[in-house]
Amino acid sequence: MKVVIIGGSFAGITAALTARKKYKEATIILLEKEERIGFIPGTLYSLLNGEIDSLEEAYFITVEEMEQLDIQVSLNTKVESMDTDSQQVIYKTLDQLVTISYDKLILATGSVQNSYQIEGMESNKIVKYKTIEKTRAALELVDKNQVFTIVGGGQIGLEMADSLINKKRKSN
Ligand SMILES: Cc1cc2nc3c(=O)[nH]c(=O)nc-3n(C[C@H](O)[C@H](O)[C@H](O)COP(=O)(O)OP(=O)(O)OC[C@H]3O[C@@H](n4cnc5c(N)ncnc54)[C@H](O)[C@@H]3O)c2cc1C
Predict the structure, then answer these.
(1) Hey, which end of the chain has fewer CB within 10 Å, N or C?
(2) Could you tell me the mean pLDDT of each successive run of 10 residues in the chain, 172 residues long?
(3) Which ligand 1 atom sits closest to the C-alpha of 129?
(4) For the chain, what is the largest distance between any 2 Cα atoms, rounded to a whole number of angstroms?
């Protein structure tokens, strides 16, 4: 059996590990569009609060650990389309379009911090920080600025308010 999983974050990685436990003989392939898997989105909070020291600590699993379990991981691999009749997925790597077949397909493509109901969401003054690149950019902005507006008063918004207060208090 060939299992193809799209998305290398919590859901996709858990699916791959579970499939490996359940189907010892299966070929398992994980496709991820970013250059690494397993980034922890709460990293900005952990860094600002001194719980971790560097972005290198921001991953909960590595490709090598997945490969040791005989799970194939393809990075910089963006799935462009799928055909559920012929059971094929088409993905783009840095330099080519590739078609692969599957017996079982798992979609673990998650979510992005975006709202189509708020105008101006694409402005580069709005920081979203779910990936490592965005987290890096957010860290720079936190260092350079004094006044922040947080959109969203749930767990993540409140955590960010808390860590900004702590950080600015320490630096004053
Ligand atoms: C700042 C922040 C802090 C958070 N803190 C917490 C917390 O403390 N506790 C908690 O429980 N939850 C937290 N969450 C929520 C948690 O991050 C999400 O619930 C979780 O990431 C969802 O995992 P997922 O695997 O379903 O999707 P995602 O993490 O969104 O992963 C989807 C993956 O699919 C990849 N992908 C998407 N499209 C394609 C494609 N076409 N081809 C190939 N790959 C693709 C993406 O690159 C990504 O790696 C936080 C979220 C944020 C943004």
Answers:
(1) C
(2) 98 98 98 96 92 93 98 98 97 94 98 85 85 91 90 92 81 60
(3) 1
(4) 62
Q: Tokens representing 73? A: 């991981």
pLDDT tens digits, 34-83: 999 999 999 999 999 989 999 989 999 999 999 999 999 999 999 999 99
Phi, psi of 35 (to 5 degrees): -85, -5
Taking CA atoms only, the protein residue closest to ligand 1 atom 28 is 110
Burial annotation 96-123 (CB, 10 A radius, 16+ → b, else e): eeeeeebeebbebeeeebeeeeeeeeee
Q: Is 113 in the pocket of ligand 1 (CB under 6 A)?
A: yes
**In angstroms, rounded to a whole number, what is the distance separating the alpha carbons of residues 113 and 6?**
19
- Could you give all domains of the chain from N- to C-terminal order, each with its CATH number? 2-46+57-107 (3.50.50.60)
